[in-house]
Write a structure and sequence with these properties.
31% helix; alpha/beta; 226 residues; 3-stranded antiparallel β-sheet
Length: 226
Amino acid sequence: MKSRSAFILFAFMVMTSICACSGWEDRTLDYLGERPTTGPFFKEDNTPMVELNYNAGDTIARQLEERLPPGSPITVTMFRMRGSEIQTDFAKVLTEQVASRLAQEGFAIVADSSGFPTKSEDADFPAPVKCVLAGAYSVGQEQIFITAAVSTVKDGEIMGSYDWNVPLNSKTRSLLPIEESPYMEPLVNTSGPLEKESSGSFATGDAAQPVPMPTPMPGFEQNIME
């Protein structure tokens, strides 16, 4: 009789524990939700590059409408990476998108302005002015910093300019000569444990090797390939 009562008491305690655990689980799900709450540690800025470059073109176009005589031809030079002679795919896309936007806004984007007149056919209108679109960019840690300007060929007067940033993400990085982030440098040895010799130096195998120091980060005026 006593053993039966003990068994019933034990079964009751087990059922109570299961119900309690189920209640805790339900309350936990109510608080956290049914989906995982973790996400990427770094959220990448995926703002479309063309959207930012078109905005730059629109801003320059508004300045040109106020200062540049109608029909003025604008030749285009490839945007350059500061501190480098490398012509990257990023520079090509960047130049094409800004120039394309100016053309969409009605400006004369030409390959050669030598055949365009420098005198106005109508005395009531100012003479066309030959100009050139040029720009430069620097690769930062998280963004690419860009400057573009339309200036006169004769005296270099800036008729319109704009500064803007493009995020350094997986898409823009693929257009640059960067295989992986130049800012991700290991701060500790990742090749395995180092053996300590009696002299106090560290070695791997038979030859003593100094502990490598992180390489300096490239500045805006440095070649990021170096």
